[in-house]
Design goal:
The protein is α/β, with parallel strands linked by helices. Helix content is 37%, strand content 11%. The protein is built from 21 helices and 14 strands. α4 links the parallel β1 and β2. The N and C termini lie far apart (68 Å).
Length: 591
């Protein structure tokens, strides 16, 4: 006898082409053979195993393997999330787990900017979302998604927890920040859709996060529960907008955040039937898989004395999959208690399980899985990746402020390049020398004394043009740091600055205002500019959003005119630099 869900899925698939096709993820496009496989697998499971299929357990390093294997053998959990280690170690773990798993496992990864995010020694890191937020050609993001998916599949991963679709409209956000495409809702939606289509074109499930919107927060949910204080109208028009568009475009997964949204519910959003069932499922008509954010994050664990309780509450609320949990026995017991209390039904468990198995079938996990490690490094570093990363960098680098003087050409006089923070960045120097310019390089330590700064400024006044590259910043501000706006007070050596900015860097930029032609290159997060009051008085500010070789090369190409400025600021930094600012022409700064 076929389950009720079998009949519901059959009806849905039969009518998809007639109405609302775009609201159903690709894994719903199943054949009758697919449905028979799902039904037969689900029917073979015990009640405890059906519940366990809804849990994703963590695999941290090779030392985690024995615990994960035990959870797979004892409970038949649904999948694994990997965190760090080496690619070959991950593949070997997957091959061994596949041999002991009763039901095919799905392997997942938090890979927002590619495999390098979790496997940095083996995988490629693509540009961060804030960098992508600066580009106009979103087809490059689709191509990036395709490449990322190919590399994820090579190491056995079928679910990627991305894209981030939060609107980062709070400069003090300690956890989303550069992980967001920006604050413009239309642009965020457009870029997220291209990212999603790229992943899912290769049958890697994309998971939009963090619903209902983690951008306008100043608390890290890994540590506590952030509060979203807005009214319903604001949430509907802003925070929910990218999710609406992503759902319409066919995203397969959505991750629920651990947030406090008082206008909707007093309990955390990830445990709220109002937010997940009424808003995400019913109002936004999302029919894909709903994943929790890590259920063992402090925003949740601080509120429950016993493990497993939050897992059960998450399923009651409408989540399909509880991610990052390892107290499986306790969680199964807690779910059965909720069923006994009438808070969730076995039919609902069936619905969730069928979605999980439909996704596994779509990802090809019904077939025997054995992954080879032969040619692994070459497969994870295709030549096309470097070309794409450079193309994105060329599009992203932003001429944020401009008063003329570019491009630099032979005959423009003597040029000084000052590396403030690192001695090793030679890309701009090389680009200038290739054009026949006379160049001399200097280095200034992030911790240099005021005397050293003054001495360097004196030397630099002998040059016709000075290019200062500021670097050595962190990508995140630090949870306890408050961005320093120096218009409210003078810089002090005793101050603690965000992003590991130093007093030396601030004083150097202040002194550099006396140079006749000074171009400042900021190799880092856009928000570091909040601490550099007065930097707007330079001839030019070039922003890269992060520090990478490709972006430094793009800066050199821009300065000598090999590429035109194309990037646009995706976030508001402060009252000087608003979202959408850019200069797209050397000849006419007003464009």
């Amino acid at each position: 006898m076929k389950s009720i869900f079998f009949l519901k899925v059959f009806i849905v698939i039969s009518t998809i082409t007639l109405a609302q096709e775009k609201r159903y993820p690709a894994f719903f496009n199943a054949s009758m053979d697919d449905l028979h496989w799902v039904d037969s697998v689900w029917s073979s499971l015990s009640e405890d195993e059906k519940i366990a299929q809804l849990f994703i357990v963590p695999h941290y390093t090779s030392n985690s393997y024995s615990e994960v294997e035990d959870l797979v053998e004892k409970y038949n959990v649904g999948g694994v999330i990997f965190f760090k280690g080496r690619a070959e170690t991950q593949i070997n773990a997957i091959n061994k787990l596949n041999k002991v798993a009763k039901t095919p496992l799905v392997y997942t990864l938090d890979a927002e900017w590619g495999l390098g995010m979790r496997l940095p020694k083996d995988g490629i890191s693509y540009p961060y979302a804030m960098t992508l937020g600066a580009i106009e050609n979103d087809s490059l993001i689709y191509e990036m998604g395709v490449q990322m998916a190919e590399q994820l599949k090579r190491v056995g991963v079928s679910v990627s927890y991305g894209p981030v679709v939060d609107l980062n409209n709070n400069p003090l956000n300690p956890v989303i920040n550069y992980r967001s495409f920006g604050e413009n809702k239309e642009k965020v939606a457009s870029k997220a859709i291209q990212y999603m289509h790229g992943l899912q074109s290769q049958n890697v499930l994309a998971v939009g996060k963090h619903f209902p919107g983690h951008g306008d927060t100043s608390v890290d949910s890994h540590k506590d529960l952030p509060v979203i204080p807005h009214d319903v109208a604001r949430l509907d028009s802003m925070e929910l907008y990218p999710y609406k568009k992503l759902i319409e475009a066919g995203v397969g997964g959505v991750m629920t955040a651990h947030l406090s949204v008082p206008v909707w519910d007093e309990q955390p959003s990830s445990l709220s039937p109002k937010i997940i069932t009424e808003i995400l499922r019913d109002s936004l008509a999302f029919n894909g898989l709903v994943f929790t954010d890590g259920i063992l994050m402090n925003a949740i664990t601080k509120r429950f004395k016993n493990y497993g309780k939050a897992d059960a509450k998450a399923l009651v609320a409408g989540n399909d999959v509880v991610e990052f949990t390892n107290h499986i026995g306790d969680a199964i017991d807690a779910v059965k208690d909720e069923i006994e209390a009438g808070n969730i039904t076995w039919e609902s468990i069936d619905d969730k399980g069928w979605r999980v198995l439909l996704m596994k079938k779509w990802a090809g996990l019904h077939q025997p899985q054995s992954i080879s490690t032969k040619n692994l490094h070459a497969d994870l570093h295709p030549k096309k990746a470097g070309k794409l990363i450079q193309n994105i960098a060329d599009e992203a680098v932003t001429l944020l402020q401009y008063e003329g003087g570019l491009p630099l050409e032979k005959g423009n006089g003597k040029v000084a390049i000052v590396n403030v923070g690192s001695k090793n960045y030679t890309e701009v120097e090389k680009a200038l020398k290739e054009q026949g310019l006379e160049v001399e390089s200097f280095f200034l330590s992030k911790r240099a004394s005021t005397t050293e700064v003054n001495a360097l400024i004196k030397k630099l006044k002998k040059f016709d043009t000075v290019i200062s590259q500021l670097s050595g910043f962190y990508m995140t501000q630090g949870a306890k740091d408050i961005a320093v706006e120096l218009e409210k007070g003078k810089a002090s050596p005793a101050m603690r600055y965000p992003y590991k900015i130093t007093y030396t860097q601030i004083k150097y930029i202040e002194q550099a205002r006396s140079l006749p032609q000074h171009f400042t290159v900021v190799l880092g997060n856009a928000y570091v500019l909040r601490s550099f009051q007065g930097i707007e008085k330079q001839n030019s500010v070039i922003l890269t959003y992060q520090n990478s070789k490709a972006l430094r090369k793009a800066v050199g190409k821009l300065i000598v005119g090999k590429i035109q400025p194309k990037g646009t600021l995706p976030v508001t930094i402060d009252k000087r630099y608003k979202e959408g600012i850019s200069f797209k022409s050397f000849e006419n700064p007003n464009i």
